[in-house]
């Protein structure tokens, strides 16, 4: 993993966990975290636990590697039990909650593609309300499509973004996400595919979401008591 601290002189009130896409590494999202410069937020860029086979380079979040014969590409949706254990137990519970004393409400996720699916899976497995999830081109894993019916909807706010065509965020994928998350906001970009944001306009819904959900202690006395 790599850690990007908050801007100089600011405390780390929030944690943003960044999860890269299929076949990538943490390096690209480490650079993204530096560019975001989110106030009072430490960014933790995780690398997926499993390397791709055949010396292809890069890593993946799935439990297995399979190839989609119809698309001639690796399948995104191969189970997320292993990744969920690593993120939920080793990173969130043992380090952020128990060691560092963060609350789930102050922990947010930013995932791309398969990393977005891992973020969604982790939130559902944790059965708690996190600060929020941003998922670009990351639908609900097929193994979790009945989660909302069995346990009620997850209260973590979700923002999902995708292209107007050639996107994994289809109408049925969006319906499945709304079945398991209480609050789901969808932005459809006027271009094909689920690539990362390419302009200020495409990034704007994400930054607005962060502005609403990131908490701040700036100007608050150290001995202040939060009233809930």
Mean pLDDT, as a whole number? Answer: 90
Largest sheet: 7 strands, mixed
Topology, number of strands = 11
The proportion of residues forming helix, as a percent range, comes to 25-40%
Low-confidence stretches: 223-228
Spatially, the strands of the biggest sheet line up as 1-3-2-8-9-10-11
**Termini, distance in Å?**
34 Å
- With helices defined by DSSP (H or I, 4 residues minimum), what is the helix count? 6
Strand content: 15-25%
Elements, N to C (H/E):
EEHEEEEEHEHEHEHEH
List keywords for this structure.
two-stranded antiparallel ribbon, 228 residues, 22% strand, disordered C terminus, alpha/beta, 32% helix
Protein described:
- By secondary structure, the chain is α/β, with parallel strands linked by helices.
- Helices cover 32% and strands 22% of the residues.
- The chain has helices at 26-36, 81-99, 114-126, 147-151, 171-180, 200-213; strands at residues 2-4, 14-19, 41-46, 50-51, 59-60, 67-68, 73-74, 107-112, 132-136, 158-165, 184-192.
- The strands form 3 sheets. It has a 7-stranded mixed β-sheet, sandwiched between helices. A two-stranded antiparallel sheet has the order 4-5. Strands 6-7 form a two-stranded antiparallel ribbon.
- α2 (81-99) crosses α3 (114-126).
- The radius of gyration is 17 Å and the shape is globular.
């Amino acid at each position: 993993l790599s850690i990007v601290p908050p801007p100089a002189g600011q405390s780390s009130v929030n944690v943003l966990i960044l999860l890269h896409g299929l076949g990538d590494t943490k390096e690209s999202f480490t650079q993204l975290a530096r560019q975001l410069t989110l106030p009072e937020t430490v960014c933790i860029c995780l690398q997926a636990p499993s390397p791709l086979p055949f010396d292809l380079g890069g890593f993946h979040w799935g439990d297995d590697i399979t190839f989609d014969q119809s698309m001639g590409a690796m399948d995104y949706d191969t189970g997320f039990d292993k990744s969920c254990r690593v993120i939920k137990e080793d990173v969130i519970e043992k380090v952020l909650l128990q060691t560092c004393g963060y609350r789930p409400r102050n922990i947010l996720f930013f995932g791309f593609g398969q990393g977005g699916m891992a973020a969604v899976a982790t939130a559902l497995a944790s059965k708690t309300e996190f600060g929020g999830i941003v998922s670009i081109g990351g639908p609900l894993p097929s193994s979790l499509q009945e989660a909302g019916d069995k346990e009620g909807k997850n209260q973590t706010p979700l923002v999902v973004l995708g292209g107007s065509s050639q996107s994994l965020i289809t109408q049925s994928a969006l319906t499945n996400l709304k079945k398991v998350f209480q609050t789901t906001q969808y932005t459809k970009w006027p271009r094909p595919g689920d690539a990362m944001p390419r302009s200020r306009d495409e990034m704007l819904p994400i930054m607005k979401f962060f502005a609403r959900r990131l908490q701040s202690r700036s100007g608050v006395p150290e001995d202040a008591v939060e009233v809930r």
